[in-house]
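S1.2 Input.
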Amino acid sequence: MNNLDNNILSLARKLNEIKNSLRNKEIEPYNLLKYLTINEPNHSSILYQLLSNNEVLKSFLRFINENKKDNFNFDADLIEKPKLTCEEGRIDLLIQEKNKYVIIIENKVCGASDQEEQLERYINYCTNVLKYSNNQIYVLYLPQENKEPTSFSINKNKLQILKNNKKFAVVDFCNDIYDWLTEIIKNIHKNGHKGQKE
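S1.3 Output.
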């Protein structure tokens, strides 16, 4: 394993110990990331580093498929050579393969407010600039805790269309991201890890 893998593994172990100790005391778990002094772009960069590995990216999307199946369904087998970018078109994280799919990730881990028509602008950027069709666009909204974007960011009817088409999910850091990282750690222990990109 490389240093990044070791650091993630160490952090995940510590978070797991804390979460388990809170469960034993019947205390509601909380988002430890909100106490770090780094900002949302830095969180996005960390997520970017994790998702740059195709197998990790696939596991992330499969995890969301399984846990958010009412609103999200992405075929992780489509992933071959994804292009990941941070802050392209002001989008926190963008995952795309030309003519196949684009995934918008909006990071709200530090509790930033939704901006006017923010998600709508990002979707328009993907259709007008990147030339994806609406059926190729997926949106992941990552708040501290489970909450949907406001109508200030995206019209409720448009949000409902994304949900109906299984192209939108709220993936919160407090539970979902933590649970996904825990699952990765278990798989590393079970199967080993080569620490390399596909």
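S1.4 Remarks. DSSP finds six helices and five strands in the chain.
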